[in-house]
Structure formats: structure tokens, C-alpha cells
Amino acid sequence: MKAVTPHALYRRICNLSLFTFKSESTDAGSNRWKIVASVCLERFPIICPELDATQRRYKELVNAVELENSLLSEHEVRLMEDQKRLEQRKTNLSDDTEESVITAQDFEDSSSQELEAFKKRYMLGTENVTDKMSLKRCLSRKLVLAVYNPTKKRWLFPEAYLNGDETLYETSRRAISTVLDADQFLLPYGYAPIGFHKFKYPKPVAKQNNAIGEKVCQMASLSRYTT
């Protein structure tokens, strides 16, 4: 067995330490992940959805049962009182000189006008469903904002890469700001992500970006939009 001198042993230890340091530096660069904040911006339904066939049949059945078993409503009582008042005026048996009485028919007319104004405001029945850029479409359904990412060539949530000492919330605001006014539309649920996923780049892309892949954190936000 060949003896190893202290000087040779020292050189071997130095070479081993240098090799280990270079390996750690290389791994630190190649093991880097890009952090992405992806924003799920939701607009919840503004109005109730229309009833389907089964729900309409059930509603008609419940209304029929209620009509058979219920007493007169206040509106029906007002209609009867208005009819009596008209008959008394015709026979001059009423001393009622008040002309500012709101009859049940007046109430029905004002209610009909209010309903028409409501339909016009929310464009019920005249909604242009082909206008995908309008927030006034599909008011009975939830909408989610999606933008086209030219780099990844697909439709995704607005997203941005984490820069420097930014927090995920700050990065999410920057991602939304590229599409719309964050102060006007963005109402975050919280400052922590609601979901997470990661994926690795293909080898050529990983070498080009000097990163293994992306770690995507989903941030949920509510739209401030109101009609």
C-alpha cells in the first residue's frame, strides 16, 4: 500500500472542496424556479338565473296550492275597496273628497313601470351575448377574466413574474394593471394564494431561461363592477 504524504492529502482535500463548490454553484443556477402570480378575477352573477322547465312546473304547482289555501292578500283587499269606493261615488253616497288616494290600479301601473325600468337597466331579453368584451353580458352567470398570452400562445389568467422583493399580492396587482385599472376593479379575497401548481420547461427552454420551470400561485380577486 502506497503511503500518502500530508502534502498530497492536503492537495486532494483542496481539489475536492473546489469541485464541491463549483457543483453547488452550478446546481444553484440550474435549480432556479420562476415564481408567477396568476390572478383569477371573478364577476359574480348580478341577477338570478331564469328557471328551467322543471323549476317552472314546480313554481306553478306551488302557486296553485297557495292560491287555493291562502286568504286574500293586501293587494286583493285594496282592489275590492277601490271597487266599493267607485260604486259609492257613482251613487253619491260617499263623503270621501280626498283625491290623492293611491288606488290598487295605480300601484300596479307604477310596479309595471318599475319592472320595465329594471329590464332596461339590466338588458333582460336584449343582451348581446356575442360581445365577449362587455361586463354587462351573462348577468345571471359568473364571469372569469382570461387574456391571451402571446408568449405561451394560449388563453390564461392575467399573470406576472415575481420581481425582486415583491410580494405575491403586489405582483398580482401588477398583472391586473396590464389589462385594466386595478384600483377600480380589483378587490382581493386575501393576500395568500388559493392554489398552486408547477411545471418544468423543456430542456431547450430551461437552458434559454436558466430555470427549471415555473411555480404558479393563483390569487383570487373579486371584480368591483356594478351595473
UniProtKB/TrEMBL annotation:
Q: Which InterPro entries match?
A: Ribosomal_mL46, Ribosomal_mL46_N
Where's the Large ribosomal subunit protein mL46 N-terminal domain?
33-128
- Gene3D superfamilies membership: Nucleoside Triphosphate Pyrophosphohydrolase (3.90.79.10)
Which Pfam families does this chain map to? MRP-L46
- What GO terms are given for molecular function? structural constituent of ribosome
> GO cellular component terms?
mitochondrial large ribosomal subunit
Q: What is this protein called?
A: MRP-L46 domain containing protein
Name the source organism.
Trichuris trichiura (Whipworm)
